[in-house]
């Protein structure tokens, strides 16, 4: 190992840099580095961030508490930047939490973040002189009670984030008043009963976030006397009247409400922040639903304030177009407008155009365009009436790209998004028609099957490309008419499609597809196996087809093999026969074929030369006859059922010349695999899996690489003989899932003690901590001096 250490550049880093690197990761991972070498044994004790959570790999509260206690006692830093406790999942004693916080204070902590159930703030924390940021999140809403029984003096705190359930004056406001230079405050109050008015008089505050939920049934006041406030956020429920005594510095505001108990409170809040330059507003439920506000009398007809300084406005959520226009009328100097979505309502053009659209509005962003008629009318209205947007188009570099580059860019996205660009400008109105990839699916944002059908019909009729590279239909959710699918495929063929990918529940293939001269790749995948029947009722001539991926339910000789025989240059074939009632033999006499994937049921198959890769899966019912597989390099076998044991043995004999073999779901003695250098056991291998694995190893004398996905519970019996490859060639072992069971350890112990050429063992720990795995395996004597074990955590 001395030669390895010479190249270990990380260990030669200065100690302050090493500890800084460890400070960037959760503490549980930083501590793990102590086992790397003597050089790293104590480095983690100098970290400046302590980030502790109760997630994996802690198995119980006692283990977690012991770990945190040890870390806090061992930390040698003179000052820690961050101390974070995230204990949502396990109930730790309050006294333990208080003790850890006190220790962090003694380490001159700068930032403290506590995410834990109810607890008392220890006295040391309330008077910490080094603290600059404090976050308290109780997590459990039922018991989220914060207690602050001591006087507070936090002279350096600039950021305060608090969540509490009740008694804001006794607890949260006690902390606030004890922070003389506070600049950022985030306060969330849940279910506070009482009729108190909240007065925020904090001269130094620059950012304020308020989330108030069911504060009281009484409409109380929130008084803001914040002369230096620059940003204000108000969220959750609006049940208070905002009174702004001094917000002279306010520049930006954000409103995100899901319920308004009294409509005039919303209007009063808007009046209170009318001096902002930027406003983000998420649509309250009361504005869009049938309830407090209606189309004819938006916001109860109350005159909105004039936002004279407003330059940027965002409408988040789903909005009524009329309400958007009404708010725009209150922003005469608006320049930038962002709209997430508008309601699906019948569009009635407004009689009066907001003044900002005539003079100042230069940018409009609409983020959720679904192609509905009301959206198109609304956006056309906005574009046509916004007279100042022409100056913006002059600086639009993307629009000055050549047509072929623009269409290529649009071809890289799903067609539904490419079509949306038609609303950007006149320059982009028809660019999508020249895309070379047509990619359709039935996922959002289509609202009904008819909308989807009309959209695809329109796109196929409007496409102007002389040749499309890819045509893809993926309709797994909707039943589309067979005639519609057939007409779309026929249109794609007329557009000289190179690749066609059909993934629908039911369809008919047009005759033109079977004689397409430009087709190089074809995929046919039924999303509904019960209806997975398609017919090939005409002669097939696909002179350029190189890749074929198909699934048939019945009559493979009449359908799939008809396409195969009509593809003279086929190189890659994937065939799945779901159900075959007869006893047909399938002969794959394809001289050009290099890759073959087969999932066959109750049939026989004959395969011949030039094949480089073979996959066989599903249910092993057929008998495989390999006439010439001299070129075969790699094979993969994955069966969920084997009808006769001898069929699997015959299959292995047929592919015994491969260099790489992947197997799943087989427990039979293999023949000698003289050329195999790489062997993978996929899936879960249970009793008597170790014996089977060792039998395979004995059959692969030249094996160098062994990968095992998972060993299930088994009874280990040590074999009498050691496989030849372990004595001479096996250099790499990978175990993808290690749970730390005794049977797994005994298997690994056998491999380590007998594999004389072994260099690398990679173990991925699933339900065991890496430290425990290392402790249990590090004591095992290794036959190879060059063997290194690497542990990976999940």
Automatic annotation (TrEMBL):
Signal peptide: none annotated. SMART domains: FBD, FBOX. Residues 724-792 form the FBD domain. Coiled coil: none annotated. InterPro entries: F-box-like_dom_sf, F-box_AtFBL13-like, F-box_dom, FBD, FBL13/AtMIF1-like, LRR_dom_sf. SUPFAM superfamilies: F-box domain, RNI-like. Residues 13-53, 401-441 form the F-box domain. It holds the Pfam family FBD. This is F-box domain-containing protein.
């Amino acid at each position: 190992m001395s030669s390895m250490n010479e190249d270990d550049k990380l260990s030669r880093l200065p100690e302050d840099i090493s500890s800084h690197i460890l400070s960037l990761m959760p503490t549980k991972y930083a501590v793990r580095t102590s086992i790397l070498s003597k050089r790293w044994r104590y480095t983690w004790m100098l970290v400046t961030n302590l980030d502790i959570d109760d997630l994996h790999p802690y198995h119980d509260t006692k283990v977690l508490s012991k770990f945190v206690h040890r870390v806090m006692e061992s930390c040698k830093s003179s000052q820690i930047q961050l101390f974070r406790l995230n204990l949502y999942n396990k109930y730790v004693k309050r006294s333990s939490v208080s003790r850890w916080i006190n220790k962090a204070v003694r380490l001159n902590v700068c930032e403290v973040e506590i995410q834990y159930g109810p607890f008392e703030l220890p006295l040391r924390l309330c008077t910490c002189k080094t603290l600059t940021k404090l976050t308290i999140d109780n997590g459990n809403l039922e018991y989220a009670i914060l207690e602050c029984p001591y006087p507070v003096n936090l002279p350096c705190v600039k950021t305060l984030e608090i969540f509490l359930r009740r008694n804001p004056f006794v607890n949260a406001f006690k902390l606030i008043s004890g922070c003389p230079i506070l600049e950022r405050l985030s306060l969330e109050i849940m279910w506070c009963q009482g009729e108190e008015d909240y007065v925020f008089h904090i001269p130094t505050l620059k950012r304020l976030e308020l989330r108030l939920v069911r504060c009281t049934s009484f409409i109380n006041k929130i008084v803001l006397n914040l002369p230096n406030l620059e940003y204000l956020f108000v969220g959750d429920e609006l049940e208070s009247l905002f009174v702004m005594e001094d917000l002279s510095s306010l520049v930006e505001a954000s409103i995100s409400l899901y319920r308004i108990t009294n409509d005039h409170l919303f209007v009063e809040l808007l009046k209170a922040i009318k001096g902002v330059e930027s406003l983000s507003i998420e649509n309250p439920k009361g504005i869009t639903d049938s309830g407090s506000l209606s189309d004819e009398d938006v916001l109860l007809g109350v005159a909105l304030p004039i936002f004279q300084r407003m330059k940027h406005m965002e409408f988040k959520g789903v909005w009524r177009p009329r309400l958007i226009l009404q708010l725009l009328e209150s922003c005469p100097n608006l320049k930038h407008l962002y709209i997430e979505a508008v309601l699906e309502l019948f569009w009635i053009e407004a009689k009066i155009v907001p003044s900002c659209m005539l003079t100042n509005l230069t940018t409009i962003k609409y983020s959720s365009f679904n192609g509905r008629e009301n959206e198109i009318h609304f956006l056309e209205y906005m574009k046509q009436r916004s007279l100042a947007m022409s100056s913006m188009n002059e600086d639009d570099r993307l629009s000055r790209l050549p047509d072929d580059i623009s269409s290529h860019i649009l071809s890289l996205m799903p067609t539904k998004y490419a079509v949306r660009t038609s609303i950007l400008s006149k320059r982009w109105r028809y660019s999508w028609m020249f895309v070379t990839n047509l990619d359709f699916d039935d996922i959002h944002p289509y609202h009904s099957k008819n909308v989807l059908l009309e959209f695809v019909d329109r796109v196929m009729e409007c496409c102007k490309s002389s040749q499309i590279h890819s045509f893809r239909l993926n309709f797994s959710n909707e039943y589309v008419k067979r005639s519609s699918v057939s007409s779309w495929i026929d249109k794609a063929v007329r557009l000289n499609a190179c690749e066609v990918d059909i993934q629908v529940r039911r369809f008919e293939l047009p005759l033109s597809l079977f004689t397409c001269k430009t087709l190089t790749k074809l995929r046919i995948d039924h999303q509904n196996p019960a209806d997975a029947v398609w017919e090939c009722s005409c002669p097939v001539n696909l002179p350029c087809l190189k890749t074929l991926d198909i699934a048939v339910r019945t009559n493979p000789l009449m359908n799939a093999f008809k396409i195969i025989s009509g593809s003279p240059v086929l190189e890659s074939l994937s065939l799945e026969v779901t159900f075959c009632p007869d006893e047909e033999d399938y002969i794959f006499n394809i001289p050009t074929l290099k890759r073959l994937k087969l999932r066959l049921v109750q049939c026989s198959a004959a395969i011949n030369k030039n094949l480089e890769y073979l996959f066989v899966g599903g249910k092993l019912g057929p008998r495989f006859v390999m006439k010439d597989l001299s070129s075969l390099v790699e094979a993969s076998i994955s069966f969920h059922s084997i009808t006769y044991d001898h069929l699997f043995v015959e299959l292995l004999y047929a592919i015994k010349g491969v260099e790489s073999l992947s197997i799943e779901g087989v427990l039979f003695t293999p023949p000698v695999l003289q050329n195999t250098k790489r062997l993978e056991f996929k899936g879960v291998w249970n009793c008597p899996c170790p014996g089977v694995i060792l039998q395979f190893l004995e059959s692969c004398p030249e094996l160098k690489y062994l990968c095992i996905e998972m060993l299930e519970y088994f009874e280990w019996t040590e074999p009498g003989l050691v496989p030849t490859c372990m004595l001479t060639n096996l250099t790499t072992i990978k175990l993808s899932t290690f749970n730390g069971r005794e049977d797994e350890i005994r298997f690994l112990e056998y491999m380590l003690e007998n594999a004389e050429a072994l260099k690398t063992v990679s173990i991925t720990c699933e339900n065991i901590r890496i430290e425990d795995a290392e402790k249990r395996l590090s004591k095992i004597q290794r036959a190879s001096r060059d063997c290194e074990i690497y542990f990976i955590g999940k």
